[in-house]
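Duplicate of earlier report; ASCH domain-containing protein input re-posted below.
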Amino acid sequence: MSPKPRQQIPSSEQLLPQLGDRVLRFQRHWLDLVLAGTKTAEIRRDRTSSGCAWMGCSGRVWGRIHIGDAARLSSLEELRATHGQHRVEATELPYGARTYLWPLSGLYILPEPVPFYNRPGPVTWLPFVPPLQDVHAGSGPAAAGRCQSEAASAPSEPRRLRSRSAPAPRQFPRGGSCMT
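Output:
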């Protein structure tokens, strides 16, 4: 089995995500605000390194953003003073003493969303991996291209009926909800 791709910080000139680029996952509501330009900061539980990241939600990458230096918020007053940037309504610091504000700038929206493997669970960061990448065929762009072209040229199989009590066979991971 191949090692997992390492997350790398994409450059601000990249027009499409590359294997291993870091993808920041969003819930759909927050992503829509970022894409509209009305949310210019993120509230998260930990610090992060500054630099570009792709924005992912629902198994698709929607664009790229630059994350500035993270700032720890130490009071509810600081959270409220920056509300216009992050849009989070709260009566206390969401993560207590570990609440950070990540400034967002340099928004680039992809002309069409790009599918990626969106691992389930409460994960903040994922490496960009195409959804059809075969983990046994190796990693890298050549392997991803091979899997996609093989999938496109494979003859379709007839649908098989299964009993209602039998569980559906697990399909290769596809995009699911953003944060599940």
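Residues 22-148 form a domain with the Archaeosine Trna-guanine Transglycosylase; Chain: A, domain 4 fold (CATH 2.30.130.30).

Merging into the original ticket.
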